[in-house]
Amino acid sequence: MFDSFGLICMIWWCVMLFHPLHADIQCMESEAQKSPIKNVNVDWRKMELSWESSKNFSMYKCTIMNWDMESMETEVNSPLWRFPEELYMPLHKGVFFIIEVPNTNISKKCTFFPGGMNESAIENFSCVIYNICLMNCTWQAGRGAPADTQYFLYWQNSRDDGEVECELYIKDENGRNMGCRFQNVKIIGKAYFMVNGSSKDSLIQFYDEYIDLYKIEILAAPLNVTVHCTGDPAGCTITWHPPLTSHVKKVKCFQYEINIQNKDDPKEEKMVVRNDRYKFQNYNEKNRYILKIRARGTKCLVSSKWGEWSEPIEFGQGKDYFIFVILFLIALGTISVTVLLYCLFKRYCSFKNILPPIPQPRDKFNVLTNEDIQTEYVNLSSKSHTEEVTTVEEMTQLSKKKIH
Asked: Is the pLDDT of residue 80 over 70?
């Protein structure tokens, strides 16, 4: 039993040693009158302010104020102040404490200064929650941080939870931690984040911040988006379910942006509604539409930023392009066949053989061409031959008569 308890104490001591808050508390008091209030101490993990007093006072008035002049004060009856749950003051810029005894001039003013090298703390720290329970936090190295500086992130989801270190760091090309991934994150309230660093050369300043987790959530898309259209003037009825979250289930906590786009017209129609139902009255069954919906929080503790769009849904019959396609294919086929036949005829056939020229009457009054001269010559030769034969026949008949 003792060994187990000793091991637990050793582990806790190592954790505390591994990520200390480098800070100093400086107190001021009047030289003329020394304050009986001494040894002021702040335990930020227990969220306590304590001190010692050489005199017994029945009441103390405590005030805490940051550099942005945000302050809170309360009265306690012992030299111990447990900070209230609504106190969310980051420490990396420093804070002021004032401890007073009512109805006296006894007081103690102290300042909490973060220790470490100037401009060595991280910069541009931001977190985002997505997919209901996943969270990413990122940051940049301090401008004055040494090259070997390594950063470590610790966070506390609520005052009732313990401080937990990041389990999955996001590293840069040099192996330096520049972000963290979280799983199974539950949105409860304000979470406390603290990033400190270590270096061989010098102390590194820490950075801390309180964040309302619901404000950094990117809402998922609405669920079960459906469209039911009829031919009557009522148009289409669009329904959906709220997006899933880890902490809100009420339908009235959301409002929705509906985006409807006509595919034949680039103009978009947008509207914001609070219900989970919408009547689309400009419906034309001859058109084709694209529908998207996204959500954001209203009134409840839900992010007021627009979330993810739902998957696009198409509805409507649209124009029947099938007939146009058929006519186009027929026209294209006709042109192709005509061009092919033309090429074949030109390659293997002669139009002169298929369609011989029609003979025309001679024009004796016009000058003869070479073709005409050649034709005339052939005709004359034929006539001369015929006359010669005729002459021979006549001479033969005369000879026969003489013999008789």
From this structure: yes
